[in-house]
């Protein structure tokens, strides 16, 4: 007679089922992504005649925001009473009449007047570092005024499209991108259409005053953000819809590795208040169905929050037609910049 196989006791099976259920629920909670809606943001209009608050910055006294605009200036918001004032500009802005009295569209004059994109303060000195698409890496003191050009090229190759920027507050070193050595900002769509991969990640050494090329041959490197602990720099790549990280120190120093796949084309990256990062998205990733037809996105994503491991934990949506280039978390509020719009958004 065959021996009867004994199974698990009922109490053990129940315990196993409960354990599996708890693991499943825990994983589901981890995968749950919060959704916030930028369409309810307050609009802070820019001065008449200018657009494109591509990047936003706040000084050590939390004054601001400061932002670069289409006519070549960096503006400062002084509150409702003071409004917008000119904080900084390249020397050519005052020298060329068409910069101060526009007679042509900005895209035709920005190479002469300058086009400030990324902004970042060094808290210890109060200096504002400016990534100007055409003029190069610039710096202006706490009082503002005419910005000095710190560098216009590296390794014998002139800058062509200086874009994202951040400052390591511990060292004063500045990390920034040159989005293409082939195409200037005015023709940025050519970078995407031709799969240009000539971008560079660069470092301005505060001690030596020299610029080093950390990585070359990159596809459309855009925004940068030094990690919360200063171990690495997160770099947004617009066309591949990805973010990478370059390790500054530790056992992986010098390595460049994938940090996150993104649901859209990223612009700037900024540290959040929770150990992660806000990544602004200019547009959702294009998706095709089986018949190769374009599938419209169910919602219009303009930003995502990543945790410290590169996992998406929050998404930011907006009305169709709204594009963002930067999301900055300050004092429990989200400030929203756009290279295309004539206002700055504020989410309470």
Automatic annotation (TrEMBL):
Any single GO CC term annotated in Swiss-Prot or TrEMBL for this entry: endomembrane system
Domain of life: Eukaryota
Alphabetized GO MF terms: hydrolase activity
Alphabetical list of InterPro entries matching this protein: 6-blade_b-propeller_TolB-like, Strictosidine_synth_cons-reg
Sequence intervals crossing the membrane: none
UniProt signal peptide: 1-28
PROSITE patterns xrefs: PROKAR_LIPOPROTEIN
Compartments, as annotated in UniProt: Vacuole
Main location: other
Keyword entries, A-Z: Glycoprotein, Signal, Vacuole
Location of the Strictosidine synthase conserved region domain: 163-250
Family assignment from sequence similarity: Belongs to the strictosidine synthase family.
Name recorded for this polypeptide: Strictosidine synthase conserved region domain-containing protein
Lineage: Eukaryota, Viridiplantae, Streptophyta, Embryophyta, Tracheophyta
